[in-house]
Write a sequence for this structure.
């Protein structure tokens, strides 16, 4: 036991002290924070003002000024031709594009709608194009309605927006279903486990290969049992991963909180004060519904399960990867064995995407119970609520598989680390399981 | 006292029988040569003694006790495939390996300092292993092998890959340790490299123990009563003592190398005096077969020997 702790300590310290670890640990949260905050930050950055010259012969736009960032300037159709305004766009940087609205015969709105042309220097701003398109559609529709003798006010008054709440009546209390936040929580859990298994499983494998190619492994196993070395390595690397994850969670939370308080927090406050109330914008209603949903998700259960599946999933795949590493002489040779091992993981991550459409799907249910895919699929399903028996079955099966895979890895590892030269076949690996100590 | 005693040890990997009924005795305090060609099973036997692997059948005794886990702290093993972590600092790594052998950190540090000074590599304590020359890395490996003052030291192919200066240095250190009472086992396929050092040897061939004996007794057994004399003179005596015939004479520069075939009872001193009477004798020795010769003879005449 004491020897395992010496090995764990070395495996842990030798990685944590590396510059690349420090770099990744510090850069990670900054990156996460950037990804989290970027969309919100984008909304705050004002678009450049785009000035568009309009040659509106039929007068469809009624000299509309445009919006804050798309400004329309009208050229007098009597003095300017289409070529004139095209030339102005080409020669004057202040103009972003030219819009030509033709009259056609009898000023037919359908003809006009089909023949509007937007001339721009370089790529046209998507925002500007859509603003103008919407305005034109609205104005032409109104014209047509007027021609038919219908008051446009009547139509807009008759427009109805449907918004419905979905309520899950299967629970004791009727609960409002909240697919979005549940999905987010499930996906984050599933993805983190997926990446952790790949990154740190790979680390275990490379470390085993390194000891083999350095030829130090026989020196070590004349002092400790191969199984002790294997477990020391797997646990040591796991601690590195947990440390990194822990630092990431803390730092990311700190950065996001700090930045959102400093930047967004103040803005919201001033806005709220100006409006004299909490702004009833779309954003804030999403936020509030998200917070409501968060209260409906059983977070203590999810965090407990996350830690369980995180560790068990890593042990399952990490021991596989250690066995693979022990069987080969170089990382390049490992591919042949790594691929079959990682296929269940890749399938799991693809299937996870479908949980949104149907979290109670029978295939998903089984994949969340079968050990090779369960760490990821169960994490994704959990926020939607999983029957207790399914969760217990999934966990027990996973524990059995973890024990089995560690046992298998120990057998293969013990034989593999002393084999040099020839790359073994799957058949040989299978035979190694039954070699006597 | 026996350092190691193997009784009926068998080991099989898949369909391949690697060790077949090995009964081996390694006397305590001596230097022992475990010899045989590559693939004979030497390394597997050593790994069994080191408890890296276990025999399928049979028993191993360590200084009279049945081999147990705690015995590994009393064995020092330098494997044929030996190396170090390239990216770890030299001192830290030596300390790590010593602690895995069960040494206290403080004791290990003190002894490491002694050995690092002795081998003049103290300046390298804080350097990464990959900065070390091959010779220096070998010194570090040797230090780590002997640091915990084991009762039994096993070297697998000890001198392969060593430069001559280091090989001599390490050999002298090993002899020193042996003088202090440590049992030494050399395992090698290059028999001539340890012939001078070993008191006892065992020959392993195709997973079987072929010969086990003291080197002296083995050579006596295989002596062919050939004598070599370096002699210089104008004419050889016309006759030699009874039972001695001249096998052949070959010129070696000024002096001649004469080879005589003698009977078991032939008076060798008489041969010497008869040669000295007619010329100068520079050297005279019995021509003993080399281990290599004995081994080849044993292997090729295996069928005719009653085994």
């Amino acid at each position: 036991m004491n020897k395992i702790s010496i090995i764990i300590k070395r495996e842990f310290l030798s990685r944590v002290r590396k510059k690349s670890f420090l770099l990744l640990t510090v850069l990670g949260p900054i990156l996460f924070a950037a990804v989290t905050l970027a969309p919100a930050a984008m909304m705050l950055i004002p678009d450049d003002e785009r000035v568009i010259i309009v040659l509106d012969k039929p007068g469809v736009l009624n000299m509309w000024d445009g919006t804050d960032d798309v400004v329309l300037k009208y050229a007098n159709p009597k003095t300017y031709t289409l070529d004139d305004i095209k030339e102005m766009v080409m020669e004057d940087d202040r103009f972003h594009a030219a819009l030509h609205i033709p009259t056609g015969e009898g000023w037919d709105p359908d003809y006009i709608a089909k023949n509007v042309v937007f001339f721009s220097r370089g790529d046209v701003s998507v925002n500007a194009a859509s603003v103008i398109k919407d305005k034109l559609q609205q104005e032409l529709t109104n014209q047509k309605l007027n021609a038919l003798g219908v008051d446009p006010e009547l139509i807009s008054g008759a427009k109805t927006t449907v918004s419905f709440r979905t309520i899950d009546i299967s629970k004791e209390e009727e609960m409002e279903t909240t697919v979005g936040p549940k999905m987010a929580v499930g996906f984050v859990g599933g993805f983190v486990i997926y990446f952790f298994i790949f990154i740190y499983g790979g680390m275990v494998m490379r470390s085993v290969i390194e000891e083999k190619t350095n030829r130090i492994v026989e020196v070590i196993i004349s002092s400790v049992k191969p199984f002790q070395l294997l477990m020391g390595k797997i646990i040591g690397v796991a601690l590195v991963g947990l440390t990194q994850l822990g630092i990431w969670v803390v730092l990311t939370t700190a950065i996001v909180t700090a930045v959102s308080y400093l930047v967004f927090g103040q803005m919201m406050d001033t806005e709220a004060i100006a409006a004299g109330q909490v702004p009833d914008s779309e954003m804030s209603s999403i936020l509030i519904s998200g917070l409501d949903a968060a209260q409906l998700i059983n977070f203590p259960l999810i965090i407990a399960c996350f830690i369980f599946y995180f560790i068990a999933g890593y042990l399952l795949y990490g021991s596989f990867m250690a066995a693979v590493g022990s069987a080969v002489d170089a990382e390049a040779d490992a591919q042949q064995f790594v691929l079959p091992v990682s296929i269940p993981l890749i399938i799991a991550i693809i299937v996870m995407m479908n949980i949104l459409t149907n979290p109670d799907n029978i295939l998903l249910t089984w994949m969340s119970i079968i050990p090779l895919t369960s760490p990821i699929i169960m994490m994704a399903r959990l926020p939607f609520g999983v029957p207790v028996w399914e969760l217990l079955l999934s966990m027990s099966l996973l524990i059995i598989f973890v024990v089995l895979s560690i046992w298998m890895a120990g057998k293969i590892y013990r034989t593999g680390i002393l084999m040099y030269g020839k790359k073994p076949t799957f058949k040989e690996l299978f035979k190694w399981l039954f070699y006597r100590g | 006292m026996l350092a190691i005693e193997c009784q009926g040890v068998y080991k099989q990997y898949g369909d391949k029988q690697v060790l077949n009924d090995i009964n081996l005795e390694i006397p305590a305090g001596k230097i022992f040569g475990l010899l045989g060609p590559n693939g004979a099973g030497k390394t597997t036997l050593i790994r069994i003694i080191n408890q890296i692997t276990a025999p399928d059948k049979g028993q191993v005794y360590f200084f009279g006790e049945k081999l147990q886990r705690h015995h590994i702290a009393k064995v020092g093993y330098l494997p044929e495939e030996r190396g170090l972590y390239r990216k770890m600092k030299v001192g830290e790594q030596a300390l790590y390996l010593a602690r895995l052998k069960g040494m206290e950190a403080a004791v290990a540090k003190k002894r490491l300092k002694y050995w690092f000074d002795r081998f003049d590599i103290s300046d390298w304590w804080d350097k990464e292993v990959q900065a070390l020359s091959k010779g220096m890395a070998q010194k570090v490996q040797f230090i780590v092998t002997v640091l915990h003052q084991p009762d039994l030291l096993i070297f697998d192919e000890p001198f392969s890959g060593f430069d001559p200066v280091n090989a001599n240095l390490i050999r002298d250190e090993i002899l020193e340790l042996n003088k202090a009472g440590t049992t030494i086992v050399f395992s090698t396929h290059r028999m001539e490299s340890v012939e001078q050092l070993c008191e006892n040897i065992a020959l392993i061939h195709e997973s079987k123990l072929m010969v086990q004996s003291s080197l002296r007794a083995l050579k006596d057994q295989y002596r062919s009563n050939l004598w070599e004399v370096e002699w210089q003179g104008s004419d050889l005596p016309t006759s030699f003592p009874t039972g001695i015939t001249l096998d052949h004479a070959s010129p070696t520069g000024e002096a001649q190398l004469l080879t005589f075939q003698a009977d078991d009872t032939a008076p060798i001193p008489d041969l010497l005096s008869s040669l000295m009477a007619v010329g100068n004798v520079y050297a005279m020795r019995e021509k003993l077969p080399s281990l290599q010769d004995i081994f080849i003879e044993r292997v090729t005449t295996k069928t005719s020997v009653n085994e």
Remarks:
- Residues 238 and 311 of chain A are 8 Å apart (CA to CA).
- DSSP finds 16 helices and six strands in chain A.
- The beta strands of chain A are 50-56, 70-74, 95-101, 117-120, 167-168, 175-176.
- The interface with chain B takes residues 3, 6-7, 10, 14, 210-211, 214-216, 218-224, 226, 414, 418, 420, 428, 431, 435-437 of chain A (CB under 8 Å).
